[in-house]
Amino acid sequence: MDAHSRGRADDIDPADQWVLDPRTGNYELRLDHSAGQSQAPATTHRSTGPVPPGAPVETPAAAPVPGQRRRRVGEQGGGQQPPASRRRPKGGGSRKKKVLLWTGGTMALVLVGGGTGAYLIYQKLDGNISVIDPVGAESKGFRKGEAFNVLVIGTDKRTGEGNGGYGDKDSPGHADTTILFHVSKDRTNATALSIPRDLMTTIPECETRQPDGKILTIPGQEQARFNVSLGQDGRDPGCTMRTVKELTGLTVDHFMMVDFNAVKELTTAVGGVKVCVEKPVDDRKSHLKLPAGESVVQGEQALAFVRTRSSFGNKSDLDRIKIQQQFLSSMIRQLKSSETLTSPTKLYGLAQAATNALTVDKGIGSLSKLQDMAGELSGIDTKNISFATLPVIDNPDEPEPITVVPHPTQAPELFAALQNDVSLTEVKKKAQDTKNAQAQTQAKLLQGTRAEAVDVRVDVYNGSGVRGAAQSTINWLQNEQGVSRSTNRSNAPEKAARTTLAYAPNQADQARKLADMMGLPATALKPGTQDAAAREPMTLVLGADFKGAGVPVSGPVKAPDVVKVEADKQVCAK
């Protein structure tokens, strides 16, 4: 039981065990019970157990306890030492508590897949972190006013004691569960986007750095399962980062990779995570046994919970993702709870487990760099952290689908929301602000009658650089908007920076209708001076601002209505 749990064991204030090193300006955890005491000279005896008569006992460090306001040690021969422990004045205690809240509250971006990752600032554990330097990755640090994205990968590689029964035997591992963690530019909210492992997508060509330093180029794959973007054919996390960028259009700034042991060790270190199930669970495959209602799981039982799928929902990987999101939300609440923040023992255990579990990119490959990231996350309230799953549909190319593909309209809308830094927890306010701004600009330029959708004729050219953009737009126009007289004219003669719609004066009503559908700003409309011939189509060129079929080119007026889990709410698994 730690000092906090005992109330104030041995008169030690738990906050006093977090101390400031005056040489570095960093707060460090001092678990030794002398944290609340002054340092005795090196030859002073200290009662820590039986000591042979006359044997000198050295204190752990003649160096000062880092950080705490040190009480002066009396001079040799006459100085008198202060009492072993003293209560701090109220003001000082409050300042220390803030340090605890800052460090503990931001120490963990904990994400599960085949495993979980977390971080805690603790200088002595720096060497525990494993680092991979993806070829071509650039570390620009964390800049004010810029959003950033961290890819958290849970691998199913059988590493660690007791994990021989998990994952695929003799496999280098897969991207078993992947979560893209998007942190807003104003640092007030974050979105954790789960990417299904059975998603069919394009894995681009990537380069990996081999142990001997040589660079190996691994060919890309069309229509491959997302999970083979890691481990298979020699792919490293850098390949998964490139795959996510290809899929979402979002640049991935950093990655954090963990294995099965991370779930077991982190949940044990924090004293267990509260979970809830609507009905009793007795799963033969994962060996998870839980009564209905709330339970606290840790270790092997926690790992079984996040890997169980046959006892929840329709027994698919998509339902397992929901379970993991609920688990992660609960773990974040536990990590931010006062029970954890004020327990030096738990924080130290988390530090050990986290640094042993993490493999990261070079850009965040030290505790000082992770501390920078922690500072960026310190202001995010749990109510503003949302977990969502990439919207998908069954793979239409499979008679009996076992894989999925991105939803043709909802997935691009969600990607566009993240690209435009729209929070899933603050959608209504930002949506209205965007809508009002658009209305002011377009009110004058887009006034007039609108043609019926069936009367709109348009040729679509792809100048966006996004593969398949023209065809996906045609599919959306014809199948969801009723614009049957639209034609895919393939690639534009050259890439276009912005989407434009060229039309004749006698096509203005068609242009207004199409602009309404696509969310085109007035600046995208290019009216001509001569009337068009009968049945002559307008010309739509998709530019680099194209975010996806059905996504307003001027930016999303709202985020898609996706199922999500918010980190401040307890949800029972069904």
Biggest sheet strand order reads 5-18-13-6-7-8-19-27
Q: Report the biggest beta sheet as strand number plus sense, adding barrel if it closes.
A: 8 strands, mixed
Identify the overall geometry. elongated
Give the quaternary arrangement of the chains. Answer: single chain
List the uncertain runs. 1-20, 31-122
Fraction of residues in β-strands: 15-25%
- What structural class do helix, strand and pairing data support? alpha/beta
Helix content: 25-40%
Please give the number of β-strands. 27
Mean pLDDT: 75
Over all CA atoms, what is the radius of gyration?
Answer: 29 Å
In whole angstroms, the N-to-C terminal distance is 35 Å
Number of DSSP helical runs: 12
Overview of the molecule:
The chain is 26% helix and 20% strand. Helix 3 packs across helix 4 and helix 3 runs antiparallel to helix 7. With 574 residues, it is an alpha/beta fold. It is built from twelve helices and 27 strands. Strand 1 and strand 2 form a beta hairpin. The longest helix is centred in the middle third of the chain and has 19 residues.
List keywords for this structure.
574 residues; 26% helix; single chain; 27 strands; five-stranded mixed sheet; 20% strand; alpha/beta; disordered N terminus; 12 helices
